[in-house]
Recover the amino acids of this structure.
């Protein structure tokens, strides 16, 4: 029995299914969470399916999160999607369920859940959910909304099919989801749209980006800077890919100050593996896309030095 079949059997047996995703979600986290929920609800109308997590206004177009209580978790099947490690799970009650299942495409550094389905070669967890559905199509229902949600997740994590994780199988999944009712133009348009404050912040990032001789680059966004543009941490996602459009930039870091004074680090790369840097600073992720934390300016400088070394070594390798 494959792990995908085992997960399907657990879903068929459960009366209550609660689907979690990671904190500070992106389209893949929410798309896979709500997309899987939509498939299960359409396929098994008698089952109770809940999707907890913080609601973000910017993702209202994908759907709404559910409120949950401790009582909901009694004998429940809990599915944790797109979440590499336990501290990142959005929700404190997830481990109260009867059975915990992990479905993810990040490196499995925190091997929680039984069973675990981890595919680091998948472009996104949303693509994994489609690939789980496809061979079971005779027993499951993929609604147009479920297709839209999964398509949105794939588009989000592939940078609209720009990143190296995009493979022929990714395009086939996207095509199948379009055929199932996903409005690609509408989803692409929404994910490509930014607000005027983010547009102005984008100009700031380009103007103040520091690029080192190695090809590493970084910019620091303090609370004062964010306040001057009237935006918060969640809105900075739109500027993360920007340094990668510069031909001489190999890898980069966006340091975003949090209200508590520490910094969230968004690390990206066009070649050098940067998840080692992330692991050194309370983070992790993919080789070309990771996240981490820096407590102060001194740690920021340490991260920049490490990123510089990574870019320099990569330059020598190629």
């Amino acid at each position: 029995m494959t792990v995908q079949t085992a997960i399907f059997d657990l879903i068929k047996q459960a009366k209550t299914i609660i689907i979690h995703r990671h904190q500070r979600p992106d389209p893949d986290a929410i798309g896979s969470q709500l997309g899987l929920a939509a498939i299960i609800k359409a396929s098994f109308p008698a089952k109770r399916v809940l999707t907890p997590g913080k609601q973000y206004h910017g993702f209202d177009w994908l759907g709404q999160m559910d409120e949950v209580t401790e009582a909901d978790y009694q004998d429940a099947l809990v599915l944790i999607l797109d979440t590499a490690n336990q501290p990142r799970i959005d929700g404190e009650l997830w481990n109260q369920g009867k059975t915990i299942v992990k479905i993810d495409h990040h490196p499995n550094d925190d091997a929680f859940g039984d069973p675990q389905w981890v595919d680091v070669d998948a472009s996104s967890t949303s693509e994994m959910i489609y690939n789980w559905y496809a061979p079971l199509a005779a027993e499951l229902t993929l609604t147009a909304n479920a297709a839209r949600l999964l398509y949105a997740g794939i588009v989000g994590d592939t940078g609209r099919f720009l990143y190296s994780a995009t493979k022929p199988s990714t395009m086939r999944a996207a095509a199948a989801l379009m055929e199932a009712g996903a409005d690609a133009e509408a989803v692409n348009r929404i994910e490509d749209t930014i607000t005027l404050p983010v547009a102005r912040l984008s100009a700031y990032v380009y103007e103040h980006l520091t690029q080192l001789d190695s090809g590493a680059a970084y910019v620091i966004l303090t609370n004062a800077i964010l306040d001057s543009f009237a935006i918060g941490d969640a809105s900075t996602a739109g500027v993360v890919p920007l340094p990668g459009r510069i031909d001489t930039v190999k890898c980069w870091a966006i340091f975003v100050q949090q209200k508590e004074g520490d910094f969230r680090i968004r690390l990206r790369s066009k070649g050098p593996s940067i998840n080692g840097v992330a692991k050194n600073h309370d983070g992790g992720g993919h080789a070309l896309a990771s996240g981490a934390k820096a407590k102060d300016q001194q740690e920021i400088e340490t991260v920049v030095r490490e990123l510089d070394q990574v870019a320099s070594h990569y330059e020598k390798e190629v």
